[in-house]
Amino acid sequence: MLVNNTYICFPPLNLTGQRFSTRDRDNDDNAGGQCALTQKGGWWYKWCTYANPNGLYFLGTEPGNSDDTMLFSNQPLYLSGQRFSTKDRDNDGDSNGQCALTQKDGCFEIISQKFIKTKNKGIVSSDASKRTSKARSGIECSAVCTSDENCCSSSFDTHSKICTLFSTCCLMTEDAEGYSITKKTPEQGTFPADCSEFPDGTNDGVYAISVNNDCIHVYCDMVDKWTVIQRRQDGSTDFYRDWLDYKNGFGDPSGEFWLGNDNISNILNGKSYSLRFDLEDWSGERRYAQYAMFSIANEFADYQLTLAGYSGDADTPEVSPL
């Protein structure tokens, strides 16, 4: 980063093989301290003063990070819903007849639906068609969604027992204690795998993509169809967080955010990607660093980093390259 007295150094090839560190999980190579504590952010630290776009954010003329962006080109819950059929109301799935007539009794059609469930998350207020009802549990709320062909996701408040059904599958979420969200698993091909799959002419902005049988919202820089995984621009979001926050992601993709190590790892597993850092200081000077190869492992391996194939103009004497 091109700011007075900072140590954002490129090309950080020494970071290849490093495991991710946060203030509550130390994986750095610094024997004299814990980098994520002193630098106030999670990163693939080797030594504390090298290449950390997630560290302290300083405003104005203060030395420190000014503006940077990183880009790159929950177990499922099975639920069943039952719709009751009688001789005068046919809800079964038998195209050859009516079960309640042939069986001389009421019967259920078993509707199997695969859901993804997320706890302590709520759906941000949305214009998507929705309706509310009472439910005894999150499972009952999900079962109601299962039996409603117009419902694709549901939110359940454990305190008020209110079940909210939404017609859209992929909605923006936020941390919300006591809430749970269930979403029907998107059909294959419902959403693009990354921003490169959106058609030419698509505007920059936040879009839904498919990740690991789920959908998430990402910011797409559509000039070269980059998928943005991190942005710091005004210091409005705190990056001094624990492992779980960096695992799941935090912030707002239209502002400052970290996409989440699980999301990044799952996206990268789909195909080969490159990584680009766009850097700008408070005087408007811009630099960039790009890597032809970028991958990270899963959480079991502490999201171990692989970088190779550096190009760019950030490896200048002013920033003391590694």
Automatic annotation (TrEMBL):
Keyword line: Disulfide bond
Residue intervals passing through the bilayer: none
One GO CC term, this protein: extracellular space
Domain of life, per lineage: Eukaryota
Domain Apple span(s) in chain numbering: 107-195
Coiled coil: none
InterPro entries referenced in this protein's UniProt entry, alphabetically: Fibrinogen-like_C (IPR036056), Fibrinogen_a/b/g_C_1 (IPR014716), Fibrinogen_a/b/g_C_dom (IPR002181), Fibrinogen_C-term_domain (IPR050373), Fibrinogen_CS (IPR020837), Pan_app (IPR003609)
Domain Fibrinogen C-terminal: residue ranges: 1-60, 186-322
Name this polypeptide is given: Angiopoietin-4
Record organism: Mytilus edulis
